[in-house]
Design a protein that fits this description.
alpha/beta; TIM Barrel; eight-stranded parallel β-barrel; three-stranded antiparallel beta sheet; binds flavin mononucleotide; FMN; nitronate monooxygenase activity
Length: 363
């Protein structure tokens, strides 16, 4: 391997290459994670959309499929987060990744038991905060990234965060990566590797149904939108009919549209009107959202599952990065990782004015 790819991230994660497959809810299960880790990158199980028991099974299944290291992504605000962290410790999982930074006591608990902590952040001020709390790596997601996302693009957020971190821990660049040139550009900015969600979702190893992958592949770079109308937080998704309807609704029409959608999707969610009202009221109190968003938020997790796992495109919630628009194939995770590394090495040689491949022969 080209020496420039042997970064501090590789050392921290115990992977062969400085590439991370992120913990995508409903997508990053044992098959994808083990295929990624077997390919020499670092796979992360998405546990935020799993029950505790499902996580136990997912870890066991991943271990059956790979002896390479892998991590687990968690919600720091989950009711049973402590129990999940104890499971990680018992199972010898080397890295816990978090959608939002965990509190200091959870970080201390993980450190006391030898587990590394890698939160995702989407703003410079969050980098300053988590550095104070003592994390082991920071995953920086620029605005073009998939799922919940910020507004600053990777090309601006990454150098800002690299400067804040000042080399104290590895910075992992995320949001918009799909090839070896991107990996080299991230290293040039001072990152120690890249993390990809959408690119790994679009591999033959991800369990997303074929029709849904086809819908992703048919989406262009302008076919996504960041909306708060789904669950209150900025969320990048494919601009489906449902999303367009919710996003374009005025304050007057938003509530009837949300009620109409909730009624339409009751066949998937199985929630009774009373249950929906109860959950909605609790959410309204907790998050102070407009009513239309409260009504949709109660349905979103199920609608995302119905779309991503069961392949029902009518449910229409497809989280994605903008990078979806430049992806046109479904390689295996192994083919993808090998291709990115080969491209990165060729790029590094080109920048050094050498014949592609020469640096590998020398090292
Ligand atoms: C379908 C999907 C589900 C996601 N779910 C989660 C999640 O559960 N936890 C999390 O920390 N990030 C989640 N993300 C964000 C990704 O982990 C990752 O940071 C992002 O996809 C990077 O941008 P990219 O898609 O341009 O590679 C999700 C992204 C997608 C596309």
């Amino acid at each position: 391997m080209h020496p420039a790819l042997n970064t501090s991230l590789v050392e921290l994660l115990g992977s062969r290459y400085p590439i991370v497959q992120t913990g995508m809810g409903w997508v990053a299960g044992p098959k994808l994670v083990s295929a990624t880790s077997n390919a020499g990158a670092f796979g992360i199980i998405a546990s935020a959309t799993m029950t505790y028991d499902e996580l136990v099974v997912a870890i066991a299944e991943t271990k059956r499929r790979t002896t390479a290291p892998f991590g687990v992504n968690l919600r720091a605000d989950a009711d049973d987060v402590r129990q999940r962290l104890e499971l990680l410790v018992r199972e010898g999982i080397p890295v816990a990744s978090f959608a939002q930074a965990p509190k200091k006591d959870l970080i201390d608990y993980l450190h006391d038991h030898g587990v590394k902590v890698m939160p995702s952040i989407g703003a410079k001020r969050h980098a300053e905060k988590v550095m104070e709390w003592g994390v082991d790596a920071i995953l920086v997601q620029g605005g073009e990234g998939g799922g919940h996302t910020g507004s600053v693009p990777t090309s601006l957020l990454l150098p800002e965060v690299v400067d804040v971190v000042g080399g104290r821990v590895p910075v992992v660049a995320a949001g918009g990566y799909f090839d070896g040139r991107g990996l080299v550009s991230a290293l040039a900015y001072g990152a120690s590797g890249i993390a990809m969600g959408t690119r790994f979702l679009l591999t033959s190893d991800s369990a997303v149904p074929a029709d849904v992958k086809k819908a992703y592949l048919g989406t262009g770079v302008t076919g996504t939108v960041v909306t708060t109308k789904i669950d209150g937080a900025p969320h990048r998704v494919i601009r489906t009919d449902l999303v367009e309807q919710m996003d374009g609704a005025s304050p007057i029409t938003a509530v009837p549209k949300a009620v109409f959608n909730a009624a339409k999707f009751r066949k998937y969610t199985g929630l009774s009107w009373i249950q929906m009202a109860r959950e909605g009221l609790a959410m309204k109190k907790r998050m102070d959202l407009p009513w239309a968003e409260v009504i949709m938020a109660g349905n979103t997790p199920i609608l995302t599952k119905v779309t991503l796992c069961d392949g029902d495109l009518e449910a229409g919630i497809l989280p994605t990065g903008q990078v979806v628009g430049v992806i046109g194939d479904l390689p295996t995770a192994d083919e993808l990782v090998s291709r990115i590394i080969a491209e990165a090495e060729a790029t590094l040689d080109r920048l050094a004015g050498r014949t592609p491949g020469s640096s590998i022969q020398e090292s």
